[in-house]
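Example record

One chain of 413 residues, shown exactly as stored in the release files.
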Amino acid sequence: MLDGDSSSVEYPDLHRMVFNLPAIDNHAHPILKDAHRDAFAFEGLVSEAQGAALTGDSVRTIASMRATKELSKLYGLDVHTTWEELKEHRNGLPYSDLTGICFERAKLQALLLDDGLSGVEDLVESYRTHDPFTTSPTKRIARIEVVAEALMEKILTPHLGTDTLDVAPILSKFHDSLYYALEAEAQNPDVVAFKSVVCYRTGLDISTFISQASLKFSILEIFKKYQSGENIRLCYKALNDMVVQVALEVAASHDIPVQFHTGLGDNDLTLLLSSPSRMQAIIKAYPNTKFVLLHASYPYTREAGYLVATYLNVFLDFGSVFPMVSQRGQEAVLRQVFELCPTNKIMWSSDGHWRPESFYLGSIQARRVLYKVLGEMISDGDITEIQAVKIVKDALFENANRLYGLGLACALE
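Predicted structure tokens for this chain:
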């Protein structure tokens, strides 16, 4: 499919909107600094796998083969270029040129970045450094577990070396400190959302009631590990659920959304606990908080669609499957999104991270699939081309602009 010229396509107005609208990327991460451009395996561009499963198996997926072909075209290489040849060519390109062409072709008006990446802060660019890549300023998404872990470390450090720990005042101090820290984040004009990775830590079946005994036990266990030299990590369900509850309360009071990692992830995630259907109780308990389900909740997209359709305060991001899933899979995901989701509650993201190519592939693949799936719906008589154009504008721009209170003017009408 030609991505630029609309003159010879079946639905020219739809084509023009899909491939020319500068989009709001409602969930992404920073890119690596030039000095650290090779800090992580390049195969992470197309897979969430780890170790040998990443470097050995991921390049044999259809998604990887497709990405190789698309990046070869971007770099001006032969269509038969191999993955290894692609990497070798890429390594010889100036990083500024590589970044420039990827973001230019991605056509992004604004980036919303989750920059709460523990342990790699020195490897990545600051969120403000991304401003030249878009026509509107970059905004931040505050990751609540990172805020909570920093506070827990500060609170527990003075007690290192002691044999006993009076948990009750520590729990109270942690709760109050977290509340005020998240209040400060919410009041920061650059912060437009919170994000939780509780899905990775203890799963999405977030409790609406947490016993004090469970909370105290969680703190004692974290303290024991900290005493033995381990880093602070929230990995006990009671404490993780409390952190989420505090964030939901603060977010509601400031009318900012809370994004949740759902579905697709690496092997640190328990797949059975990553379905958004497990969040139904917490969604009901916080009707004034806006929940954003990230990554199309793949492979639980239909469950996500049910929640979005039946709860006013739930929204769906359909990123990350681009480029992690094959094109046929992406089309199936988008069809499932449209089965039930109100089109004013869906938003695109690249889930771009580390490499500028992730933003390019996330954008161009999503646009191609949008055009194909919506074109089929027009052909089937489900919608008109005018309605399809509106759906694209909402999904790529208007819904995120409204939900996050960005106040941006659309650059294409």
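Notes: Residues 356-380 form the longest helix (25 residues).
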